[in-house]
Amino acid sequence: MAEMEHALSSAAKDGSRFVLLGAVGITFCTGLDLVYLSKSLGVDPEQHSEKTAEALKSFVNHFIHFQKPIVAAVHGPAVGLGASILALCDIVWSSDKAWFQTPYATQGQTPDGCCSLTFPMIMGGTAASEMLLSARKMTAKEACDKGLVSQVFHPDTFTREVMARVKKLASYHPLVLQECKSLIGSSIKADLEQANIRECETLKRIWASSHASQFMLHVLDRKLDLSDLRR
Predict the structure, then answer these.
(1) Does the active-site annotation cover 81?
(2) Contact 4, 59 (CB under 8 A)
(3) Among 5-14, 48-57, 65-74, 202-211, the least confident range
(4) Which of 125, 152, 187, 227 has a CA between 20 and 30 Å from the CA of residue 101?
């Protein structure tokens, strides 16, 4: 998260017109490392819950306050924070092979990345609740139909389709891109900030509880929902 913050801070000051957010490997992003988190909490729950919550809040705030457009190219599974952060991006292009899941409840977690606010706004209350409470996987087509994804492309042509659109977007005037983004998102920025605070405070309380790390380890041992990431 610190590396991503540094990259966004650098991009905010350079001559770039926008940021293209992608990944290598078979997944886009699986969110917070629950193995690392559970082990840290087992050592000192109070200290590490505070530290992690503050790091998460800072990370999400960088997305909220970034003035240039953020374009996400999702080629594989986006899970947890990897899915919720997409709602803070300005354009999301997805491969048909990608899928989206926020299995917070099954992992002993609560929503992050402002998705407790953005998901209901984007896809409606019941669809958002199903995503956040039942850990249902959403296909790329479903995500596009619900408004989380802008366009879906065939896996074989995904990179070519994305780069063609990136090239076109890069031809626009940077000031126009920034002003358009500002007009679109200015009305909800304060709400996003408050949602980020609420979510991180809730996670901090959960992580500091005596049973948090044990429950997370139990979930990981059972490999709930995460086994598909290895296929």
Answers:
(1) yes
(2) yes
(3) 202-211
(4) 187
